[in-house]
Amino acid sequence: MTTSRVGVATDRPPARRAPDAAGAGRLVRLQLRQERWALPAWVAVLVLTAVSTVSAIRGLYPGAAERAALAAGIAADPSLVVLTGRVATTSVGGLTSWRLGVLLSVAAGVMGLVTVVRRTRGDEDAGRGDLLVAAGAGRAAATVAALAVAGAAALAVGLLTAAGLVSQGLPVTGAVGLAGSVAGSALVFAGVAAVTGQLSGSGRAAVGSAVTVLAACFALRALADTVAGLGWLNQVSPLGWPAVVQPFGADRWWDLVRYPATAAVLALVAVAVSRRRDVGVGLLPPRPGPAGTRVLAGRWSLSLRLLRGPGVGTVVGMAALGALAGSVGADPAGLLQSTPAVEDLLRRIGGPGGLVPAYLATMGAMVGLFVAAQAVAAVLALRREETAGRWSLLLPQPLSRVRMLVLHLAAALLWSALALAAGGASMGAVLAGRTGRGGLLGDALAATVVQFPAVLVMAAVAALLVGAMPVASGAAWLAWGAAVVLGQLGGLLQLPGWVTGLSPFAHVPRLPAVAMSWTGPIGLLVLAVAVVVLAAVGLRRRDAG
Amino acid sequence: MTGTGTDGGASDTGTADAPVVLGGVVKTFGRVRALDGLDLEIRRGEVHGFLGPNGAGKSTTVRLLLGLARADAGRLRVLGGDPWRDAVLLHRRMAYVPGDVSLWPGLSGGEVLDLLARLHGGVNRTRRAELVERFELDTTRRSRGYSKGNRQKVALVAALASDAELLVLDEPTSGLDPLMEQVFRQAVAHEAARGRTVLLSSHVLSEVEVLCDRVSIIRAGRVIESGTLAELRHLTRTAVTVELGGVPPAAAAADLQAVPGVHDVAVDGVRVRFDADPAGLTAAVHLLGRWPVTALQASPPTLEQLFLRHYAGADPARSPARPAVGAS
Ligand SMILES: Nc1ncnc2c1ncn2[C@@H]1O[C@H](COP(=O)(O)OP(=O)(O)OP(=O)(O)O)[C@@H](O)[C@H]1O
Ligand SMILES: [Mg+2]
What we know:
The complex is a heterodimer.
Chain A: H1 2-11, H2 24-34, H3 38-60, H4 64-76, H5 78-84, H6 92-125, H7 128-134, H8 141-167, H9 172-199, H10 203-226, H11 233-236, H12 241-245, H13 258-276, H14 299-306, H15 308-328, H16 332-335, H17 340-350, H18 355-387, H19 391-394, H20 401-435, H21 439-449, H22 452-468, H23 476-493, H24 497-500, H25 519-541
Chain B: E1 20-29, E2 32-42, E3 47-51, H1 58-65, E4 73-78, H2 87-91, E5 94-97, H3 109-120, H4 125-134, H5 148-161, E6 166-170, H6 178-193, E7 197-201, H7 205-211, E8 214-219, E9 222-228, H8 229-235, E10 238-244, H9 249-257, E11 262-268, E12 271-276, H10 278-288, E13 293-299, H11 303-312
Parallel strand pairs in B: 3-7, 3-8, 5-6, 6-7
Antiparallel strand pairs in B: 1-2, 1-4, 8-9, 10-12, 10-13, 11-12
Bound molecules: adenosine-5'-triphosphate and magnesium ion.
The site of adenosine-5'-triphosphate has 11 residues of chain B, from strand 2 and helix 1.
């Protein structure tokens, strides 16, 4: 300890030079090249979502009276408030900001964190970090470069989104505020990922920790918007900052400074740690493992074990989300105040059946989307096993590829099922406790568990890509993103049925708001089986590894 | 297994029992022709060395044998089955060690061994414990923390402790220290003595020389030579050095140069050196017989020379040739 401290002290470079970031400029170019498909895709999706939302709101709710009615309906629907916050202004811009502020901040945040982890710990895990540092790059260079790359992407998102909003006729001040919030969120979560990347033992764990921070920020924001007296929490959570900046309302531009300031602090912490950290090793020390295993009885349990970390994370995360949804939404007193006019609006947004069932159904769909993300990631882990060369140890065993795929899918979906059940059970238990209506437990469980066939379809699509088009397997995230956009925006924007119907979640009955219908789920199951068969055929035909 | 086959190809006689028979195998990756009409036969119970320069196609061949990749053309028989179609059945009887072993970072070495053992089915536990001890493997270490050699040992122990009849080893010792290399050689010799068949792809010539009954040399996707080491030596040139009393070395060299089958003639002081292939040796000896030879040394090429010749092939620029006449 003492010796290393002495070493660090004597090796510390003069403050002016920063050799630890040497070569960062070159690495920026390298990383831009590595991200040349992913980043433009992110930017395009974010900007197009923004632009199309404005034009849809303007087209669907042209009059001030219609917009005011919409805002009243939103305020009365706790599920919408939990997910997207409160409407501050009822102009077209104000509604756009309400609809997009949180959604795009989350998406941009994911863009930032994924990009940074991939280009720091991801490259280190693959052994490329050693090469770069040995070739003369500073130990902090990859982190600095990744932050620069994520910053450039954030800038592109900000400029293009602002331009897009203005092109739709929105005022410049509000457009800058909204676009600035979205871009700022990308910056902040890039910074978060830079720090978790220094602490965690691997790139996957770093993504997990950063996503946990993102989810916590979302929870704080949801509490701020739904629980009286907790509004100040929006000041603490970067995802609550759009409500602080108030685009198209008060337009408090100077509050945008929070984003780069926070990102800068996080970046400094990350760079400081990365100067001291061993390349390829996290700050938290590794533990020894068991000398053998009885539990890893074979193929099935290997997949279960490999997916254990993210699986447990999702189960816990969904239980937390459910508890949050159960505690903040469906305020029993508020439910009594709903008027026929409001219920009519809700029918448009959330479907018929009363407030609590509609709320449960919406939250169930939300849980379903999160769990689908877990399922997609878990299936894609199989591809990562392949690129890491570990199929070369498995497939020379008497294990057929199809079996490997099916068992891996089964393990992934077991975690999905547990996560759905955990989300529904905790939401139902909290709600039942608050209202004293025990039946809500079953209702909430039904709302999440009924999502399973749609999750299955998303997992099957990912499996198809792994099996038949492994190089493009990352495109499974595009399918998931499309399902999110269709699910979140489809109803509000009144997209035609065949478009919203492209998402498997559109065929899930909105339990408990409607009666159970089996056609949708059975159709999804059949589709999933067919897709898995195609995946198996593809996997059997191609080269492995 | 015992059926002699009804395909009745006369050339197949004696090979019906061979664990590995490849004929005219082609494998392309886009525009790269990794295997270009590869023929290979591995006989039962032998340790077969598989040699060739980087990128020659050794690992590609191994991956085809394991059904990890599919050949574009050619005949492939592994343990009497089709390695692509019958992969699962065949794998019960095969074991594989890759050159670059990648393990599950979160699992300990012991967990990986147990996992692979259960996947494979047949494993000899006492044998495994013995191998773990001989390879000095710490099975409680997590794979993330293993050095390259230790990762390789995990794969080696798993393969050697299995009851597979065909061991496929692709540069299995590229990370082992000399002591462990010794343990590896003993272990493979032991397995071969028990009647197992081994395919050993390697760049370590001494290892091949000690362990292998027969070797195949592959270059640019084709097997260019196959046989026992003695046969390969026979096929190649003998290095001859002579001292001649009275005859000017330069003149003798010029005469030798004219003999068909004599190559790389060089003058070194009073000595003349040349290489003669089997066809040229007789003529060269006849020629020498006309001169007063005061000293003569003839030696088969060292293994290294042998391989270097084959690796470099017909390309003189890559062959480690001695300076030719007049070039000094
Ligand atoms: N997946 C792949 N895609 C493209 N080309 C490939 C692929 N795998 C192998 N090749 C090419 O096939 C040829 C043979 O490669 P292979 O790995 O079989 O060589 P090798 O004999 O094992 O070499 P080494 O001694 O370096 O291990 C090389 O030209 C290589 O570039
Ligand atoms: Mg190789």
